[in-house]
Amino acid sequence: MMKPASWHRIFMGVVFLYFAGMALQNNILQFVLKPLLVGALLGIFISETAGIDSPFKKWIMGALVFSIGGDTLLLFANNNELYFILGLISFLIAHVFYILCFHFMKVREAIAGKWYTAIIVGVYYFFIMSFLIPHLGALKIPVLIYGIVISCMLLLAMHLYDLRDHKTGRTILTGAIFFVVSDSVLAINKFYHPAVWGVWAIMITYVGAQWLLVSGLIRYIRDSRSSGNNA
Q1: Are 59 and 103 in contact (CB under 8 A)?
Q2: In this structure, how many other beta carbons lie within 10 angstroms of the beta carbon of residue 100?
Q3: Do 54 and 224 touch, CB atoms closer than 8 A?
Q4: Which of residues 148 and 194 earns the better pLDDT score?
Q5: pLDDT category, 226, cuts 50, 70, 90?
C-alpha cells in the first residue's frame, strides 16, 4: 500500500495542477483532474487509517466515493441538465454518509443537543432558499431537499465542536462550513447570476472543505485508537 506521505504529495500536486488549469483556462486539465481532487483524499484517508478497525471508516469512504461521483457528473452538467440532477443526488448521498458519521460521533461522545444551533442553521436555510426559489424553476424541489440535507450535516458538525479534542471538532466544523459556503456560491452562480470569481470561490472552499473533513475525521479515528476506544 502506498504510504500516507506519498498520497499527501499526490493530493498537493493535483490541487496545484487543477488550479493552474483554472488560471490558464485549460479545460482539459480541469476535466481530467477534478475527480482526482477527492480521489487523492480518499487515498490519504485509507492509508492514514490502515489497520484501524472503525465503523466510521465505511461512512467516510462512502461520502468520499459519492463526492467523486458528484464531481464527475457535474463535469457534464453544462451539456445536459440531467447530469446536474444526478450530480446533486450523488452529493446528497455523500452528505447522508457524513450525517451518519457525525450523528454516531455525537452519540458516542454523549454530546448534548443545543437548540440555538438549529435556529442558526434554520435561519440560514430560510434566507438562502428564499433568495434562490424565484430562480430555481423545475429544480425547486431537488434543490430544497438538498438544502435540508446539507443543513443537517452542518447542524451535526456544529455539535461536534464540543468534542473532547477541540482541534478535531473545530477542523470538522470548519470543513462543514466551507462545504455550505461552496454549495451556496455554486447555487447563486448557477441560478441567479454567474460571477467570474464564483468558480474560484466554489472550488477553493470545496477543496478546503473536503480536506478539513478528512483531516478531522482521520484525527478522530487515530486518537480514538490511541486512547483505547474503537472509533
Answers
A1: no
A2: 18
A3: yes
A4: 148
A5: low
If one compares 1 and 26, the residue with the highest pLDDT of the two is: 26
Buried b (16+ CB within 10 A) or exposed e, 136-161: beebeeebeebbebbbbbbbbbbbbb
What is the separation of C-alpha 66 from the centre of its chain, rounded to a whole number of angstroms?
Answer: 10
Q: What is the mean pLDDT of the chain?
A: 93
The mean pLDDT value for 72-89 works out to 92
CA distance 126 to 156: 18
Q: Which of 151, 177, 44 is nearest to 92 (CA)?
A: 151
- 219: Cα separation from own chain's centroid: 17
- Torsion sign over Cα 109, 110, 112, 117: positive
Convert 144-158 into a string of H (helix), E (strand) and C (coil).
HHHHHHHHHHHHHHH
Model pLDDT, residue 225: 67
Predicted TM-score (pTM) of the model is 0.94
